[in-house]
Amino acid sequence: MKKVKGAILCGGKGKRLRPLTYYFQKTMIPIGRKQKPLLEYIVKLLKYYGITDLVLLVGYKHEQIINYFENGERFGVKISYIVDTPEYQGTGGALLNAYLNKAFNNVETVLVYYGDILSNINLADLLNKHWEWNASATLAVAAKYQIPVGVAETRGNKVVGMREKPWLPIQATIGILALNTSTLKVLEELGKKMKNIDIMGNLIPELIRRNHPVYAYQHSGEWYDVGTTERYEKLDNSKIDEMFKHIV
After folding, report:
1. pLDDT in tens, 86-107
2. Rounded to whole angstroms, how far apart are CA atoms 37 and 30?
3. Cα–Cα distance between 97 and 89 in angstroms, integer?
4. Could you give phi then psi for residue 30, rounded to 5 degrees?
5. Which residues of 5-37 are buried (b: 16+ CB within 10 A; e: fewer)?
């Protein structure tokens, strides 16, 4: 098995989760019946699939994360931390900052996990497919996405039907991806041209433009974006416990 390091993005200010994030780092909001931090579920998911070398890319209220997880020993993992800098911003900037700080030395694959995503994805299978396809990047995608608003069906200006928060048949990225460490050199090049870099909006399109092999891994299980106050309020704690019953 190739050497893998997990990189969890947990530095954002969580503006869509305000006012909660005036007091909490967004990845530390309590979920499930036992009210454990969201980030704990992610750490334990990675550990369950054998990814025990982790770097947490932190920034806003990072003291909460470091004080809780420390070096990761009590969770059965090894955790290091890279604190965001003003020089590099966005998800890609956080990843680039970690790369420049040599967080991925002697690592062949980086498993990137967005810190506001809950999922029961099979990370071992994703990584095996990534290597089987000899991909530069493999994005976890879901075959459908539920939009958060109702949709009016119209004929001209007349409304002839309504669909409340319908599911769309699209390949929705779910904030989990595998990257060959060599692709981070492309990220470094982008960092010389822009300050705010987005992984999905800048890095992945650039890899495609350069004809790097980028693949989609189909995830048919559960996933949930906890990135807004509305979505957090609608979390079903019993469903979360069911999702992670073999992991947490």
Report:
1. 888 888 999 999 999 998 999 9
2. 4
3. 9
4. -80, 135
5. bbbbbbbbebebbeebbeebbbbbbebbeeebb
Rounded CA gap, 130 and 112, in Å?
13
> Tens digits of per-residue pLDDT, 29-63?
888 778 888 899 999 999 999 999 999 999 888 89
Tokens of 53: 């070398």
Q: What domains are there in the chain, each with its CATH number?
A: 4-141+171-243 (3.90.550.10)
Contact 181, 108 (CB under 8 A): yes
List, in sequence order, every residue forming a beta bridge with 170; answer none if it has no partner. none
- pLDDT tens-digit readout, 185-216: 999 999 888 888 999 899 999 999 999 999 99
pTM: 0.86
Across the chain, how many H-helices and E-strands are there?
8, 15
Closest CA to 206 of 193, 223, 224, 220: 193
The single-letter code of the amino acid at 190 is L
pLDDT band at 1 (very low <50, low <70, confident <90, very high): low
